[in-house]
Amino acid sequence: MSAGSQSSRSGTEIVMPRMGLTMEEGVVVAWLKNVGEPVQAGEPLVEIETDKATVEIEAPATGLLHQIVGQPGQTFPIGAVIGYLAAPGETISSNLQPAPIVETASLAAPGKVRASPKARRIARQQGIDLSQVQGSGPDGRIVAWNVEQAAVRLSAAPSLVTSPKKASPLAQRVAEDYGVALEQVQGSGPGGRVTRKDVERAVTAPPAAPQAPANVLAGFTYEPASRVQKRMAERMVASFRDAPHFYLHSEADCRALLALRKALLPKLEERYAVHLTITDLLVKFCALALTHHPQMLAQWSGDGLMKASAINIGVAADTPNGLLVPVIQNCDQLGLSEIARQRAKLIEKARQGALALSDLELGVFTISNLGMYQVDSFDAILNPPQAALLAVGRIKERPVAVNGQLSVAPTMQLSLSVDHRVLDGASGARFLSELVELIETPGLTLG
Asked: How much is the pTM?
């Protein structure tokens, strides 16, 4: 992404870009060039952190990095100048004025409390008045961690209460997601500021000197769970407890599907250097079916439905760090070759532990394929807050009836997990029926 810029007698301004409809400010994480170094237009120049992701911003023009206004750790509003570029040989005024730094409000405005949905839910559970809670999110927005800290303060002696540790918005969000106490994280940013990477290191770090519980049976050993494992366990328990699951099962004849993959595989490998898998074809077919059944993209929000406008499909991946679900964005707009390329890239990043937060966000539907492990069929727990998940078994030769005659054909067992708060049986059945039709007659769609 390119940084915004304006040309003037003071050189080319590097401004804080807008990287999302809801973005109001960003944090300068690090400059990738030193003052005086040459910079090419489009070359990564500075890392910017929003409340959702850390992104490398490209230089808006070719020249020299003349001045850095935004220092690492400082927060600026959209459009604020964070630096200046000079053309080679250009003389720039030395009286450049720094851009205004955003001072995050320490308290929400009276009568207008801004808080995340999770923060509101925890406040209701704990009986906490949000108007008395200090927010550390953008513009003083109250996040779940703030409410949890308020609950601690209510039960602790005043002398034991400590102030929240400085942390970037994204670090706060990751800490909130994984239940990490920021006071226990060693910050590596300016002034000890906790960054996203600091929190991620805390998440993946093994527990210090774990002690086996007293109830470990003789003949058993004890292995403490990592934070990732604990977070996954909490999510699955919450999903199974809160979402009323039901399951729909079907079997698809895969003769045409296998023939299509066999025909496309060498062409895609030769032309695009990608390896087409059955999962890639299922992503494509699910995307096509979801365009006709938009109710499948809705999510339960507690008192109503949130309806997604983009078809972003997650693909469950087995990694050394446990189950992860990277998301392929806008699948309905991608061809098979691009779906295969993105799926392979995301799975590799997942296995290397290199996924960004943005790789895991905004999924509206999940595919979990265990066919490669010789699993015939299974029922999966929903991936919250999504309302549907497709569980896929292996393709296997099975007896089938064709025109009244018993025959043998390769078939696939499908199981659709559904949240009954969002969808009823008929809605899920219509989607699954169309998906089976796409699998059994793929040539009608892709031909």
From this structure: 0.58
